[in-house]
Amino acid sequence: MSHSAGRAPDPAPAPEPGRASEPDLAPEPVARTLGGLVPGPGPDGRPRPDAPLVAVTGVTGYVGGRLVPELLAAGYRVRAVARHPDRLRGRPWYDSVEVVAADAAEPAQIRAALEGVDVAYYLIHSLGTGKTFEERDRSTARTFAEAAHDAGIGRVVYLGGLSPHGEPLSPHLASRTEVGEILLASGVPTTVLRAAVILGSGSASFEMMRYLTERLPAMTVPKWVSNRIQPIAIRDVLRYLVGAAAMPRDVSRVFDIGGPDVLTYRDMMQRYARIAGLPRRVIVPVPVLTPRLSSLWVSLVTPVPGGLTRPLVESLIHEVVCEEHDIAQYVPDPPGGLVGFDRAVRLALARVQGATVSTRWSSAAPPGAPSDPLPSDPDWAGGSLYVDERRVLVDASPAALWRVVEAVGGERGWYSWALAWRVRGLLDRVVGGPGLRRGRRDPARLLLDDAVDFWRVEQLVPGRMLRLRAEMRLPGLAWLELRVEPADGPGTGTGNAPAADPGPHDAEGSWDPVAWRRPPVVFAQRALFHPHGLGGQLYWWAVYPFHGVVFGGMQRNVARAAERAERARTDLTRDGG
């Protein structure tokens, strides 16, 4: 099917309401359709020792986190480059890659990280970071380009944004275009892939469309909903990224990439509604909604905060349709063709409904989010610190309590004064924070660095401790620490048990490891706040009177939920279930 601009194909027959999966949607590595382009894994299923080495930046982001396992499946050795490598722990591929600490904006660090690399993926951009994002993107791209040239990299691959020629661009698209030009001018063979809306479970563009369509049966919309767009499935984006590593050295240029369908945003919402089994939406375009007003409206309706919705909405004022499909000369279309809009939506919904979303738009911590050390860390510099610590004995096993602790936030909420949490989340959204709508990647399981509403997982010891760092807008730094401790172990009743204690299996004579599997257990909860200036001090004392209701209620209700789960398990065992 042609990938140039043209009439959108007729919609496929609607699936049965509620149906979100098909036999052909089974996940498999994109390398399966790349034939001889990729080196392929060794007999043990792992990359061969002499396979090309690729470096991936932006590995904590939505695309980077999905690209790494695809490159491994294709037989490449992977070096994951991150400013905070510890945040990658818990990723399924962590032990299969080389992890390097480096900031792409620091010349010496990124130069060392690219040493010996054959192909480098540049997946960094400052989307939603404020008014200085253009200069930050420009400076970081130049630093990376110079480092890649000095390191003798064989190829740089960059994922940018699809934009029209010959018309003023939104700041976001203009910056993405400039970054591509900087990399192309580096002297290193460079592949710049330009994509429009990316369709995939957890992508910001998909989540924006999904929530708008699901929550608003009728809506007034800006006139840009009639602009043509050529969306592309995340699976095809990953396929092009993996295939680009094998391009001939004499190829250094921009490629437009898009799926087989050219649609308007209105068409996309209506087709999404049909696929999701929803009634047809009433969509009325009006000329008075500016991109700024539109982004504020979208941020109120969807989980995506204003800092992200504004550049995304501003990009939609352009018609973004591929002008060529030259990429097929180097990365041929898969045998079954590229993924169409309907199939991409069904695949994304299947992952959402099955809780198998591997990365989300919130996977990367927002630039400017707090990263100072916890006050108990060795490099803590001192200063005021307020602590609210609570402990309670729970008539449940450690496993039962941990299941409740690990599932906090998102749809389950915070086990206390729900109205207070909702109001705090709304206030955070008003001042530009993530609020509570960001939710969770998985309803039951957490990984290090996962976003949980307006928190982020800073430390995770499975079965023992969960430490969350606040990313809400605050006049200071805040943490919430939830621990599961033995009823007769060190720290019981004192609040002094080490947060990352190795546990009863490693502490000789501390307590009975067998008894640790049985009730009771201690649920220890600690809220910490390091104020910034007088505003931070006033904030703490203003909210302190509510701690008994919010944190005290949370502790009691978590304990009760764990005890109910323990009784249910015991009854089931007694009945022979």
TrEMBL record:
It comes from Cellulomonas xiejunii. Residues 1-52, 488-509 are annotated as: Disordered. Residues 58-194 form the NAD(P)-binding domain. InterPro entries: ComplexI_NDUFA9_subunit (IPR051207), DUF2867 (IPR021295), NAD(P)-bd_dom (IPR016040), NAD(P)-bd_dom_sf (IPR036291). This is SDR family oxidoreductase. It comes from the Bacteria.
